[in-house]
Each structure stands twice: as structure tokens, then as C-alpha cells.
Description:
- By secondary structure, the protein is α/β, with parallel strands linked by helices.
- 41% of the residues lie in helices and 12% in strands.
- The protein has ten helices and nine strands.
- A seven-stranded mixed beta sheet has the order 1-9-6-2-5-3-4, sandwiched between helices. The chain has a two-stranded antiparallel sheet with strand order 7-8.
- The chain starts with 15 loop residues before the first helix and ends with a helix.
- 34% of the residues are buried.
Amino acid sequence: MADAKIIPLPVPPMPASNDFASFLQRRLAGDYEVDDFGFDAELTERVFLPAFRTLYRDWFRVEVSGAEHLPVDGGALIVANHSGTIAIDALMTQVAVHDSSGRFLRTLGADFVFRMPFLSEVARRGGTTLACNADAERLLKAGELVGVWPEGYKGVGKPYSQRYRLQRFGRGGFVSAALRTGVPLIPCSIVGAEEAYPMLGNSKLLARLIGAPYFPLTPTFPWLGPLGLIPLRSKWLIRFGEPIYPADLAVDADDTMAVLDLTDSVREQIQATLYELLAQRAASPR
Length: 286
């Protein structure tokens, strides 16, 4: 009788619990890598993004358009409006970029973030670095997708009465970084963050006491204590606009007036798109 042919049974996948236990074991043993900026890709992929994605999909129900404008490789600078009291719009944009392109968005954060001991470490592990031209240019030259919110504190800390009115875009440092590195600028318009933490007032005294740029008073914070940090449910729309390529522009990175003109042009484009998205959201069921 011929030898029986043994057909191996498929090996079942490792249970998720065992996989996560292995992940934790490696982390505790120091078996992981971070880049020169402190970014931990594995931790971001396995922990941070899944946590943000719960808000992204189920609470804010984010809809993304224009994802085809995100490059599959190479550097690009994503320029977005900033709002919502807490910079949760940056986190939602990170999820949008990753889930639409499979790439990580390296965000540029304010100096206040890096003055906070615990928050500073978490931010760096999640891909955030200081919002300065030197770091931005290094990341762009390395072929990374970089996100910048040029309104800074003026945008994220503005009162609810000024919602969706863009503030000044600084002195155009982000435009200079893109011009010097030759990467495209991608305008990004975000609707929804303004309603997550509507800022009704600002306690300047408390802000000075804790060294913060502002101390928000919202319908739930600080009245409900830690529960007041839970964002209100709102419908979000994120749109990535068509890339602006430096090669198509006769703009010198050292020409201050030309850089400011381009900065204003990007700002106006984002503002116009915000109005379109607001009309779109109003016309569609929540």
C-alpha cells in the first residue's frame, strides 16, 4: 500500500490576547525602535491610532474627501485650519491620513506641548515634533508627510462665536519649509472640531496660574470636572485639496512678500472650502 499523503492542517492565527501579550513583553524588555524625533511607529500603529479611531468612526463619524491628493510616497506638507479648544483636530487628521493612505502624519506641535512632562513624551512617541522650520525641513527632506496648523493658539483657542473664521497664518514659515524642500503643499479643511469643545469663555487668571495660553470655559468644563473633557458629539468633514507644487510657482523661499502672498492664498483656499463643507453638512442628515 502506497504511503499515505499527509496534508498539514492550517495553523490557526495566534489569539489577539497572546499577540498583545507578546507586544507588551517586547515593549517592557525595551525591544522597540524610535526615530531621531522620538517617533514610535509600532506604538502609534498598535495603541494610539486604534484609540483615536474609536472617536473618529463612532463619535465624530468623520467623512473624508480628496484622499486621492495624498501622495503614496515622498514628502508633503499638509496645511490645515485649527479649532476646537483642544487640538483634537490634529489627532483626527492623523487617523484620516493613515486610514486613507497607509502613511503616518508627522505633526508639528506648539511649544506648550513640550513643556508638559508626560504629554511631551506621548506626543513625541505619536509623531509630533516642535513646530519650527528646522524640524519641519528635516522631516520633509526625509520624505515624510508633515501636518501643520498655522493658526496656532489663535485658532484652537478662539471663542465659539468666531467658529470657522480663520485666524492669521503666522509669518509663512510653513510655506518657506515647503519651498526649500521642494515638496507639495496640500490644503486641508476640517469641519466639526468647533462643536466638540465650544469655548464660551476664557479665564485669563487661571491660564496664567498654570502657564497655559488660555483656560477654556465650555458648557461642560470645568463644571463637570474630568467628565467635562469628553468632547461633545459632532459631525466631522475633512477635505484634502489639490496639491500646490513649488515647481509650478515662481516663488523664492527668501522673498518675504512672495511667501506671505502664497501663505494668504493657501489660507483663502482653506476658508472657501470650509464654507463649502459647512453648506454640505447643513444639507445632509446628521
